[in-house]
């Protein structure tokens, strides 16, 4: 037994992660349900093959790892993880550590942690896709701190680095890491949706070509919006279809796929009563995008909207500012949800450290996250939109967001995430809202009682019959 760690599941992510671990100088044993894949993986590992021990049986796999063992599972989330744990545990010692590194629902990770009892178990969220897994993902750990400490040196070594600081952090007990990963994915949905919405304004409102749109994204990638998602959006817009010579975007069907992590975030936000309208809007938009036939029929019935907007009405700099405002509001919502979960689940989630592990390696990595980390370090309790640096930016950009949302509404362009971001902003800055009417209604029909502005709760109205 020479391997410092073991990994099960040599699919897209597992294979990349195993190579990354070997590349960082750790000997690793691997096992895969289909043995042929294990051999092919080892043969294709080049120089790194000497650090990799391929095994054909679970028994041989376990025997190849130094005790006390640490074993990463990289198999599909759900039942396969439970099955794999059940197959593995009988072969392990009481101090051997199992690490589920797939996209588990954090409720499952909570359950598995409870089922593990005193047996070491970690659930870690890994973000960054295949490329991230191979060359440096963002890692969000959950489980017992002492279990994390056993493998921290490996996980920090393989993770992405931001100015030398590793993007791998322990988030808290049980499913805390997978929870943070879910919110990451929710924010990712909203970030992508807002970019898709401004793409729509440029394509349908301003009648810009894909090349012009690509150039715009490339320009924005040099400013406040600098991020992986803006960068790749520019590259997507710039790419031609080899078969037809048309822009790739013009040959891709406008129905978005999803694996469900955004949906989990939204469902959890409802349980927590955490307002994350931009993320909810993004999930709804994906659901709606798949109703292609109904959309086509509605377009015939109602006619298409008068999309065209004059360039001087909506300059590109206004759209850029609107996206900046929308992005701040979306992240403010995401971090607010994390703060609420931290209280509700007794987790002490480290908000500044979360912003820090998202700075590199993951899909939502961006220049703005660096400022968010700083703002959250200054005061993790405060809603991000109120942190001075973001408040200043919002003061400068919410007018642009209003312009964009208003023009889009007038021209029949749907902006679900950006407009919900604006509604969130306006609701947040309205000291005296309209829920007094709702309280009046609730008391009228259900005698639910209300608080009075001059003091006291449980009052009832003298309602007319
Ligand atoms: P793949 O489908 O590429 O690979 C799945 C692996 O799991 C294969 O090695 C497969 O073995 C094995 N496997 C499947 N079912 C079982 C089972 N019942 N028992 C044991 N092994 C099984 O998946 P990915 O690598 O893409 O994803 C793995 C995990 O990582 C998932 O939880 C995913 O959500 C998560 N993830 C994926 C990302 C991505 O960008 N792809 C990003 C971040 C997380 P076999 O060869 O025998 O089929």
From TrEMBL:
Domain 6-phosphogluconate dehydrogenase C-terminal per the UniProt entry, residue ranges: 177-464
Catalytic activity: 6-phospho-D-gluconate + NADP(+) = D-ribulose 5-phosphate + CO2 + NADPH
EC class of the enzyme, as a word: oxidoreductase
EC number: 1.1.1.44
InterPro entries per record: 6-PGluconate_DH-like_C_sf, 6PGD_dom2, 6PGDH_C, 6PGDH_Gnd/GntZ, 6PGDH_NADP-bd, 6PGdom_BS, NAD(P)-bd_dom_sf, Pgluconate_DH
Protein name as annotated: 6-phosphogluconate dehydrogenase, decarboxylating
Family named by the database record: Belongs to the 6-phosphogluconate dehydrogenase family.
Pfam families the UniProt entry points to: 6PGD, NAD_binding_2
Subunit structure: Homodimer.
Function as written in the Swiss-Prot or TrEMBL entry: Catalyzes the oxidative decarboxylation of 6-phosphogluconate to ribulose 5-phosphate and CO(2), with concomitant reduction of NADP to NADPH.
GO biological process per UniProt: D-gluconate metabolic process; pentose-phosphate shunt
GO molecular-function terms, A-Z: NADP binding; phosphogluconate dehydrogenase (decarboxylating) activity
